[in-house]
């Protein structure tokens, strides 16, 4: 309120222009959370299908990143991961 004390009364209309976007954002977030709630309540995770879908090569990027942080070059990483995945 202190900030508004020195502003002429004609500026009050200008200060309300941002409220329209705020209300629009609130409405959109409310709708998104409403839909997300409906989706998550009915969500059922089949652990067996998830386990079957998990393959060793899915983690190859993580392994490569880890090896790069340890100072290995990409050529060494490729051959190491290829050997690891093929022997898994």
TrEMBL record:
<dbReference type="GO" id="GO:0004056">
    <property type="term" value="F:argininosuccinate lyase activity"/>
</dbReference>
<dbReference type="InterPro" id="IPR008948">
    <property type="entry name" value="L-Aspartase-like"/>
</dbReference>
<dbReference type="InterPro" id="IPR009049">
    <property type="entry name" value="Argininosuccinate_lyase"/>
</dbReference>
<protein>
    <submittedName>
        <fullName>Uncharacterized protein</fullName>
    </submittedName>
</protein>
<dbReference type="GO" id="GO:0042450">
    <property type="term" value="P:L-arginine biosynthetic process via ornithine"/>
</dbReference>
<dbReference type="GO" id="GO:0005829">
    <property type="term" value="C:cytosol"/>
</dbReference>
């Amino acid at each position: 309120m202190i900030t508004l004390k020195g502003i002429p009364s004609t500026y009050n209309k200008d200060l309300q222009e941002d409220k329209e976007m705020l209300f629009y954002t609130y409405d959109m977030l409310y709708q998104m959370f409403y839909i997300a709630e409906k989706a998550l309540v009915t969500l059922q995770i089949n652990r067996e299908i998830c386990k079957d879908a998990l393959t060793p090569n899915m983690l190859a990027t993580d392994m490569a990143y880890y090896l790069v942080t340890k100072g290995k070059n990409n050529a060494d990483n490729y051959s190491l991961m290829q050997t690891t995945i093929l022997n898994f």
